[in-house]
Design a protein that fits this description.
Mean pLDDT: 96
Oligomer: single chain
Largest sheet: 9 strands, antiparallel
Low-confidence stretches: none
Distance between the termini: 38 Å
Helix content: 25-40%
């Protein structure tokens, strides 16, 4: 891939995604697959006047070794220096970038129950720090190709050719063009107009149906609103948390979901795949779940904590989205969720509550935003997906027909 195009992508991530501010610290979490691109991103951060940029590298084979040999107690321990670091992040509010490139099957065979037990030990200690930063810092998830990931998406190609094709797919989906910043401004404006229309309807329920058997009704929080594209932090900084993004999303009312929903794409969870799965809801809670592949992993995910079986997000994405039209299955949630309507179990978004800047996190959750240690998106959109909005005045308004916007 031409370096000039990659520099444009790096600049887009830093300026449009994170919107790094003068004097701000930046944290980058990434695999070891594309060090030269990470170098470009770091330089772009400094050109944006970042104070300090810290890169945290990860490597899936090492994760497997650590998990095999460490005890649950060791894995779940939060040392005093880590608490001090978390407090520093609360004070400094660094911008956070997550560059995903991992192998969708890279952690296959790892003891997920052991990881779950360890997370349950550390989560209560780390949660207050995360809550203190909620809505106050910029963050962005973007992607770079990894060799194993590229071969998963393009199995018929040699590794080098597969990496090049995956670069092309990532850049196309991310709207990296001659003037990527202008393209993203137009895209954000379009998503904002769609959200404005949805919010004008006074939606109280969404009813999903599809030929695969999906028949699910989800209740909305009266104070919630659809969001899409860029967001604004409590400090008034505009940023784009996902590159790419095609969704208009909202956090539904905890405890208000009934029916059954079938996933239409695999879910890569903790480096392992869950496929051919469904969830059945009663009074907002998943009471039954099954999968053709990874059923035990699916239920481990749903048992992470009490909130993991409740919905945290409803997202609307048309089949006409560029990612869907590409015909590619990415085996990566960042891309696959932007190719289809999706739901998420686990944590909801406080910033979908109107006037959330003037509310505490506790007040937003009291209105019905779900709380959990996980937030896992799964794709439910398909060509036969119909979605109706049941509005406050009793009107039933078509939102989706045959997988695409009905307005």
């Amino acid at each position: 891939m031409k370096k000039s195009i990659l520099r444009e992508y790096a600049n887009l991530i830093v300026r449009c995604g994170l919107n790094v501010q003068k004097g701000q610290e930046v944290l980058i979490y990434t695999g070891i697959e594309q060090p030269e691109f990470v170098q470009m991103v770091v330089e772009c951060c400094y050109k944006a006047k970042a104070k300090e940029v810290t890169v945290h590298w990860s490597y899936q084979p090492l994760e497997k070794i650590h998990t095999r040999y460490q005890t649950v107690k060791t894995m779940g321990e939060v040392k005093e220096w880590e608490k001090a670091r978390q407090q520093h992040y609360c004070d400094a509010l660094p911008a956070r970038l997550y560059l995903t490139s991992e192998d969708p099957d890279g952690l296959k065979g790892m003891n997920m129950e052991k990881i779950a037990k360890a997370r349950k030990l550390s989560y209560p200690i780390l949660k207050p720090y995360a809550d203190a930063r909620e809505g106050k810092q910029q963050w962005c998830i973007a992607a770079v190709p990894g060799a194993a990931w590229a071969k998963k998406v393009f199995p018929g190609l040699r590794t080098a050719a597969a990496i090049e094709k995956l670069w092309e797919a990532i850049l196309f989906a991310s709207r990296v063009s001659d003037d990527a910043m202008a393209a993203w401004k137009a895209h954000n404006d379009n998503l904002a107009r769609r959200c404005q229309y949805l919010n004008s309807l006074g939606i109280r329920q969404l009813h999903y149906t599809a030929d695969n058997g999906t028949d699910l009704t989800v209740g909305m929080i009266p104070e919630a609103q659809f969001c899409g594209g860029g967001e604004v932090s409590h400090q008034g900084i505009f940023f784009n948390p996902n590159i790419p993004t095609e969704e208009c999303f909202i956090s539904p009312m905890r405890g208000k979901a009934d029916g059954i929903v079938y996933a239409t794409k695999p879910l890569s969870y903790q480096g392992q795949l869950i496929d051919g799965f469904f969830m059945r809801f009663e009074n907002g809670k998943v009471v039954e779940a099954g999968a053709k592949q990874g059923e035990a992993l699916l239920n481990t995910m749903l048992d992470m904590d009490e909130g993991a079986r409740y919905l945290g997000e409803c997202a609307l994405v048309p089949q006409q989205s560029p990612i869907c039209q590409s015909g590619l299955l990415f085996y990566n949630t960042l891309f696959d969720e932007n190719a289809a309507c999706h739901l998420a179990v686990g944590m909801g978004f406080a910033d979908t509550i109107r006037d959330h800047h003037n509310k505490t996190l506790e007040e937003c959750r009291a209105l019905g935003v779900n709380d959990s240690m996980i937030h896992e998106d799964f794709m439910i959109g398909c060509d036969s997906m119909n979605i109706d909005a049941i509005c406050e005045d009793g009107a039933v308004v078509p939102v989706f027909r045959s997988g695409n916007w009905a307005f």
